[in-house]
Specification:
CATH architecture of the domain at 459-510: 2-Layer Sandwich
Shape: elongated
Largest sheet: 3 strands, antiparallel
Radius of gyration: 32 Å
CATH topology of the domain at 459-510: Double Stranded RNA Binding Domain
Strand order of the largest sheet: 3-4-5
Strand content: 5-15%
Structural class: alpha+beta
Helix content: 40-55%
């Protein structure tokens, strides 16, 4: 029988793998792939810690009843979550998920891991060693669209084995664990138990420092780093450190410009999965976030949070900038705002190298390098780099000034112009120079002012190469080469290339 053949063969053929074919009732031997390739094929690595828990683990193991074929492929079941394995060592490794045992620890930072492969991956954060080629090979499927796993029943193809295995359950009838509350299906009983905490509100993992509770242990471990300040994942390009690997991976795309996630409807690309998921709602019209008070639906969670304040009467903004006192609804908005004060510019142009504090500013700037002007005025045909520039321009044709000052009644065609104007009445100057303490009413004022301290001259003449700190200085200088003199004396007709020269000349006539 198949089981006796397996027993006879398993005694020393570690370098070979047994394959059982149910279609032709044959058992064949083939040489194993390299270690790196096998990691792609096997989701759970062979790790036998030989720990003192073996007695406890044996109690959790039980054979799975079924046909002879089933016994060959999957013979051992986890009592905790019901997941099945065909090797004792795989179950031993899996049980650490439930027991919390982490027998492999990092000699540099002391962090513990359940499997050796995870420790090896972690060590690269300290050594700077590049990841294995097989990991790159798997990652490249995002870009190439390669789908090496094919379903023999329906022909559907998959890029990753985990997705392929989940799909097979549709045909085999093997039931995944299903949530009775929302109907969602999970891969196993353990994942279902974790998921159900969303509905029950159970948070069994508690932070010893602040008392905050979490659904998953991994969430608690990440949270603890906010107290300890530990940021074990550094960016090899700029040195910035991160609490989570996922944060580092997203950050690295700022430098590489990689956008691996693509919208299947319009082709727009995104740097992270959440970006493409949020974008897809533009096409589908999906609004998954609903107000419990009035029933209004929203496509984004923070839109709902902002709307909820209408009902609660909450007006106070809880997040305040320590430097200028400005308040924000969301922590992410405060973090972005802080770049005004710190001068941090994490976004870099791949064409000219210029750096920016905001992603939107980089996106707009790139168009100035490429010459792209995707927004066109339907009235005069003038084209613009930004949609907001087009909208402002159209108001020149329509004469619309939708933003009125409540103090003096003056109207403006841009909200930013109104905000700057209001500061004339209030005297507010929220932007402060960290070098000399001088204050400014708007961010553009402080940006221009900072160039006096730094000596930065980002605007250069294409004719002679002379550099200027302000675009207005470059504009006036260029007239030396072009001979343009746009300022004319109304008395004698003499022309000048600067308004200050005209004003000086006018004194001849006025005395």
């Amino acid at each position: 029988c198949a089981s006796s053949i397996l027993t006879a063969l398993c005694g020393g053929l570690d370098s070979f793998k047994l394959t059982y074919s149910s279609s032709c009732n044959q058992i064949s031997l083939r040489q194993n792939k390299s270690l790196s390739e096998s990691r792609d094929e096997e989701e759970i690595q062979h790790v036998d810690s030989g720990s003192a828990r073996s007695g406890e683990l044996k109690k959790r193991r039980r054979p799975v009843s079924g046909s002879q074929t089933d016994t060959v492929k999957k013979s051992i079941q986890c009592d905790t979550c019901g997941k099945t394995f065909y090797k004792n060592s795989h179950l031993t490794t899996h049980l650490r998920v439930h027991t919390g045992e982490k027998p492999y620890s990092c000699g540099t930072c002391g962090k513990g891991f359940t499997v050796l492969s995870a420790l090896k991956t972690h060590l690269r954060t300290h050594t700077g060693e590049k990841p294995q080629k097989i990991n790159l090979k798997i990652h490249m499927r995002i870009h190439t669209g390669e789908k090496p796993y094919s379903c023999n029943t329906c022909g559907k193809k998959f890029s990753w084995k985990s997705g392929f295995r989940a799909h097979l359950r549709i045909h085999t009838g093997e039931r995944s664990a299903q949530c009775d509350t929302c109907g969602k299906t999970l891969q196993n009983k353990y994942n279902l138990t974790t998921h159900q905490r969303v509905h029950t509100g159970e948070k069994p993992y508690c932070c010893d420092t602040c008392g905050k509770r979490f659904i998953q242990k991994s969430d608690l471990e990440r949270h603890v780093r906010t107290h300890t300040g530990e940021k074990p994942f550094p960016c090899s390009t700029c040195g910035k450190r991160f609490i989570q690997t996922s944060e580092l991976q997203r950050h690295v795309r700022i430098h590489t410009g990689e956008k691996p996630y693509c919208c299947n409807t319009c082709g727009k690309r995104f740097a992270d999965l959440s970006g493409v998921m949020n974008h897809m709602r533009v096409h589908t019209g999906e609004k998954p976030y609903s107000c419990s008070t009035c029933g209004k639906k929203f496509s984004r969670k923070w839109h709902l949070e902002r709307h909820s304040r209408v009902h609660s009467g909450e007006k106070k903004k809880s997040l305040q900038c320590d430097t200028c006192g400005k308040t924000f609804d969301f922590k992410s908005h405060l973090i972005i705002h802080m770049r005004v004060h710190t001068g941090e510019k994490p976004y870099s142009c791949n064409i000219c190298g210029k750096r920016f504090s905001w992603k939107s500013a980089l996106k707009t700037h790139v168009r100035s390098c490429t010459g792209e002007k995707p927004f066109c005025c339907s009235i005069c045909g003038k084209r613009f780099i930004q949609k907001s520039h087009l909208e402002r321009h159209v108001r020149i044709h329509t004469g619309e000034k939708p933003y009125p000052c409540t103090t003096c009644g003056k109207r403006f065609n841009q909200k930013s112009e109104l905000e700057r104007h209001i500061r004339i009445h209030t005297g507010e100057k929220p932007h402060c120079c960290n070098t000399c303490g001088k204050r400014f009413a708007d961010s553009s004022g402080i940006i221009k002012h900072m160039r006096f301290h730094t000596g930065e001259k980002p605007y250069s003449c294409s004719t002679c190469g002379k550099k200027f700190s302000q675009p207005s200085g470059l504009k006036i200088h260029v007239r030396i080469h072009t001979g343009e003199k746009p300022h004319s004396c109304s008395t004698c007709g003499k022309r000048f290339n600067q308004s200050t020269h005209l004003k000086k000349h006018m004194r001849i006539h006025t005395g």
